TrEMBL record:
Residues 315-360 form a coiled coil. It comes from Actinoallomurus spadix. Pfam families: GAF_2, PAS_4. Residues 150-316 form the GAF domain. Keywords: Coiled coil. This is GAF domain-containing protein. InterPro entries: GAF (IPR003018), GAF-like_dom_sf (IPR029016), PAS-like_dom_sf (IPR035965), PAS_4 (IPR013656).
């Protein structure tokens, strides 16, 4: 707040002559968006005020002929009556900028901001006889500025793909900081089964309360959040001690020190339920315009963050499935290569055995039965030659039981062709 000077009034001014009739004031300020009131005497008696003044302080207080301190007792402790006393005493006007004032009391109390001026009213002799209050309420502008700044920061978080828990927690704290009165914010997320709500964010609610409502059923009469999710509509409970929606949760709210809860469903663009956004208060409260603005803006922001999170989860799941399929394909290719290598090795082994048989057959032509196994390959085999085998091409060889069995398994059309009766028995009894 800063002080400023005003021009010296002249005798031609209606306020100076004391002839400013209420109808003249109404004609001058009656339809203005500016707040105007004419106060008289050191007690600041409200002589006249325009509709904007009474709209600002509450229509239930639209009365004249009463001291301002009696009409608006909340101004006393906030210093505004003292400023009026100062202007009346000194005759110097006072101008306030971006002045914050709490108007009303109880459930209807609200935060407001004004640009205003207190101007002294004088009689013909220049004596101060009262004060003119002229101002413009800028509450919506102030709230919009703060709201836009915080909202922009949240959108940047979402764009950077910050974790959903961080975004929701930041959003809850943002609202709690912006709200003119203490408010506790909660975000519950719709469970994939579509029948329950799960904890999303609630930085200021007690842990026992968050744990108790984690997983609550979506349905009529399940507090504010369960009912809002069921109805797909906002549910405003101004006093949980008297509302039937809170019958089953009243003891829990009392333990947590909660007296009011306004819940709004968070819906996707296609109408799918994503969760709920709730604002709790410790005293019974009726929502003000600021509260409704918070709800509209941040419920939409939460929907954007949750949908973005679901999309990211779907993308990651698709990538995981693609990677798993790629890994399985790689395993199949490796297995096929191993089988092919094993088959090629078996073919090579069979060719080598066939070559041994041919070599043995050629050696047998010189002597009917060798002393040692002929099927040992380049390393040779010192085992006794016990069994004769042959193939369909007429090649024959003598070998030990080990190499004969290897040939029978790996070389096509190989059979035992022993010239002695005990040859087959030697193989069977190996």
């Amino acid at each position: 707040m800063t002080a400023t000077s005003s021009r010296r009034p002249t005798a031609a001014d209606p306020a100076v002559t004391g002839q400013a009739a209420p109808e003249d004031l109404r004609a001058l300020f009656g339809q203005s968006i500016a707040v105007f009131a004419s106060l008289a005497g050191p007690v600041h008696l409200v002589e006249a005020a325009n509709p904007a003044f009474f709209a600002a302080i509450g229509q239930e207080r639209a009365r004249t002929g009463i001291p301002l301190a009696d009409l608006m007792p909340e101004l006393v402790d906030q210093g505004f009556i003292a400023l009026l006393d100062q202007v009346y005493r000194t005759g110097e006007p006072y101008t306030g900028r971006d002045a914050r004032v709490m108007l009303g009391s109880g459930p209807h109390e609200r935060e407001a901001f004004f640009d205003y001026t207190y101007e002294p009213r004088r009689d013909a002799d220049g004596n101060v006889i009262g004060i003119r209050v002229i101002g413009v309420e800028i509450t919506q502008v102030k709230h919009a500025q703060r709201l836009m700044a915080e909202h922009r920061a949240l959108l940047e978080q979402i764009a950077r793909q910050a974790p959903l828990t961080d975004v929701l927690d930041g959003m809850a704290r943002c609202i709690e900081n912006l709200a003119p009165q203490e408010v506790l914010v909660s975000v519950l997320l719709a469970d994939p089964d579509g029948r329950h709500l799960r904890h999303g964010a609630a930085p200021s609610l007690p842990d026992f309360y968050n744990q108790a409502i984690d997983g609550i059923t979506i349905g009529e009469g399940v507090g504010s959040c369960g009912t809002a999710a069921h109805r797909r509509q906002p549910v405003i409970v101004t006093d949980v001690t008297a509302d039937p929606l809170w019958t089953d949760f009243r003891h829990l709210a009392e333990e947590a020190g909660l007296a009011a809860c306004w819940s709004t469903p968070i819906l996707a663009a296609d109408g799918t339920l994503l969760g709920t956004f709730a604002m709790y208060h410790r005293t019974p409260r009726v929502p003000q315009d600021t509260d409704l603005a918070f709800t509209r803006v941040f419920a939409g922001t939460a929907a954007l963050a949750i949908e973005r999170h679901h999309g990211e989860q779907a993308r990651q799941a698709a990538e995981a499935r693609a990677k798993a399929a790629h890994d399985e394909l790689a395993k199949a290719i490796q297995a096929e290569r191993r089988l092919r290598a094993e088959a090629e090795q078996r073919a090579a082994d069979a060719a080598e055995l066939a070559a041994r048989m041919r070599a043995a057959a050629a050696a047998q032509a010189a002597r009917p039965r060798p002393e040692h196994c002929q099927l040992g390959g380049t390393e040779g085999c010192t085992a006794p030659a016990e069994i004769k085998i042959a193939d369909s091409w007429g090649d024959a060889a003598w070998g030990c039981t080990v190499h004969v069995e290897e040939a029978l398994i790996n070389v096509r059309s190989v059979f035992i062709a022993n010239e002695q009766p005990d040859g087959l028995g030697a193989y069977l009894n190996r």
